[in-house]
């Protein structure tokens, strides 16, 4: 049975920390990835980084529905089927496309907060898979966006950092309340 973790919220210090690289893909890492997929699905998310379950390690999971894997106006599929569910160990973006696009994003650590984020349309990603095998893949569209959002988490970067100043200003009150609530919950 998979374990469902509590997802930490904005204001928890681990969300601002850099993840430690994974030295070896062990059964423990595979079990954590499985539990992170289960936690993400239970929360109706499309991605989750280990920091969001309180673990400062370079592991994130992404799974997007097949209907999201097209251009905004429809058309052919963008990525191979097997890439729509990814567990990324020590992921690194090694190339980004000049083409960028904006889309409203959410984050499981920021309930009810959304904002437009501009990101490259396509990325080349290097990572280790759960078999311990080094991989290099090119991703595009929503899948590339979800991976960029999760890889940001591993650097201690969250999506509000990438929003416009105007949007951050508009969210200021809500962000402060969320942070205050998180800090109040953390009191013994
Ligand atoms: Zn997030």
Task: Give the integer mean of the pLDDT values.
Answer: 96
Strand count, sense and barrel status of the largest sheet are:
5 strands, antiparallel
- Taken together, the total number of domains comes to 1
- CATH architecture level-2 label: Alpha-Beta Complex
Helix content: 25-40%
Order of helices and strands: HEEEEEEEHH
Q: What does this protein look like?
A:
With 188 residues, this protein is an alpha+beta fold. The chain has one domain: Alpha-Beta Complex (Peptide Deformylase). Helix content is 28%, strand content 24%. The protein has helices at 27-42, 141-154, 165-186; strands at 47-49, 59-63, 85-96, 100-105, 115-120, 122-128, 134-140. Strands 1-2-3-6-7 form a five-stranded antiparallel β-sheet. It has a two-stranded antiparallel ribbon with strand order 4-5. The longest helix is centred in the C-terminal third of the chain and has 22 residues, at 165-186. The protein is globular, with a radius of gyration of 16 Å. The model has no long low-confidence stretch (mean pLDDT 96). Bound molecules: zinc ion. The site of zinc ion (ZN) has 5 residues, from helix 2.
């Amino acid at each position: 049975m998979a374990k469902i973790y509590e997802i930490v919220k904005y204001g928890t210090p681990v969300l601002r920390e850099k993840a430690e690289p994974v030295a070896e893909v062990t059964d423990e890492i595979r079990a954590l990835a499985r539990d992170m997929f289960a936690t993400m699905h239970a929360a109706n998310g499309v991605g989750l980084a280990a920091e969001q379950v309180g673990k400062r390690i370079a592991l994130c999971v992404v799974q997007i529905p097949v209907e999201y894997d097209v251009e905004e106006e429809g058309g052919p599929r963008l990525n191979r089927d097997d890439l729509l569910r990814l567990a990324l160990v020590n992921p690194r973006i090694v190339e980004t496309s000049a083409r960028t696009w904006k889309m409203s994003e959410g984050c499981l650590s920021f309930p009810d907060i959304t904002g437009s984020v501009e990101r490259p349309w396509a990325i080349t990603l290097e990572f280790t898979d759960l078999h311990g095998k080094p991989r290099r893949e090119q991703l595009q569209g929503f899948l590339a966006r979800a991976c960029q959002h999760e890889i940001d988490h591993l650097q201690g970067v969250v999506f509000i950092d990438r929003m416009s100043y105007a949007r951050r200003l508009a969210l200021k009150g809500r962000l402060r309340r969320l942070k205050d609530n998180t800090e109040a919950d953390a009191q013994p």
